[in-house]
Specification:
The longest helix has 16 residues. The protein is globular and about 45 Å long. The protein has eleven helices and ten strands. 38% of the residues lie in helices and 25% in strands. It has a six-stranded mixed sheet, sandwiched between helices. It has a four-stranded antiparallel sheet with strand order 2-1-4-5, with helices on one face. Helix 3 crosses helix 4 and helix 3 runs parallel beside helix 6. By secondary structure, it is an alpha/beta fold. A hairpin with a 2-residue loop joins strand 1 and strand 2.
């Protein structure tokens, strides 16, 4: 494993009961970069994040963090190793205040450390910081997503796993979230992201990985994929097959 590799999947097989979603999946993600996972629904993108965060134990293969196996580790152990997960949808305690939600995010740190770190996290989110004592349910969708990310940042993670951060958000808020992720990566955090808003996500990503049926079908710099005329076809699936390639050639002939 090269020194700049942070995350590595090695022939990972994972799924639920008899249904395998990841099929001998192998890829690497570099430290301090944003790696975007692409592919059609059911390709295994979210399953990659769940397997890395210990929500799904691989049947075969291995998952490495900085060269050390973390396959099958508990979420508590993974949090301690610097992995934070921001899942799809809203995952807040709506009846609790913004401040109380932040406190819960730092529960593994102890209250003293959590209270010391909350101000530094709030610097990223000025709108949220003005509503510390409001119930989380009273925040806008964008503010709620920012609060979720802020809760993850309390841990000062070296890896952030984020699943569909743009769902339900306005374009302006999505742009703010993407700028934050880019800033975090530039400061050394490794970001592994699933996002349906492909073109916008590619613009702030370093690397793109395309999955189909739980297998890697493409990995290349995001900037190259952004200019690929077949990006929509790839995203919908099947672009790597000879039939799709032939159809694309015929369409542009």
């Amino acid at each position: 494993m090269s020194n700049d590799t942070c995350i590595e999947f090695k022939d990972v097989v994972a799924g639920y009961k008899d249904f395998m979603i990841l099929n001998n999946l192998s890829f690497k993600a570099k430290r301090g970069t944003i790696t975007l996972l692409l592919g059609p629904n059911g390709a295994g993108k979210s399953t990659v994040l769940k397997a890395l965060f210990g929500l799904l134990k691989p049947r075969q293969g291995d998952i490495l963090l900085d060269g050390v196996s973390v396959a099958g580790s508990t979420q508590k152990a993974l949090l301690a190793q610097g992995i934070a997960f921001v899942p799809q949808g809203r995952n807040l305690f709506g009846q609790l205040s913004v401040f109380e939600n932040l406190e819960l995010g730092g529960i593994t740190l102890g209250m003293k450390t959590t209270h010391e770190r909350i101000p530094e996290v709030l610097e990223f989110f000025p709108r949220v910081s003005q509503r510390l004592h409001s119930p989380a349910s009273a925040l806008s969708g964008g503010e709620q997503k920012q609060l979720e990310i802020g809760r993850a940042l309390l841990l000062r993670p070296k890896v952030i796993l984020i699943d569909e951060p743009s769902i339900g958000l306005s374009p302006i808020v999505v742009a703010d979230v993407f700028k934050l992720l880019r800033k975090l990566a530039d400061q050394g955090t490794t970001v592994l992201m699933v996002e349906q808003n492909v073109k916008s996500a590619l613009k702030i990503s370093d690397e793109a990985i395309a999955l189909e049926s739980g297998r890697l079908v493409l990995q290349k710099p995001a900037s190259e994929l952004l200019t690929d005329p077949n990006i929509e076809r790839l995203f919908l699936g099947g672009a790597h097959t000879s039939a799709a390639s032939a159809a694309a050639t015929a369409a542009t002939a």
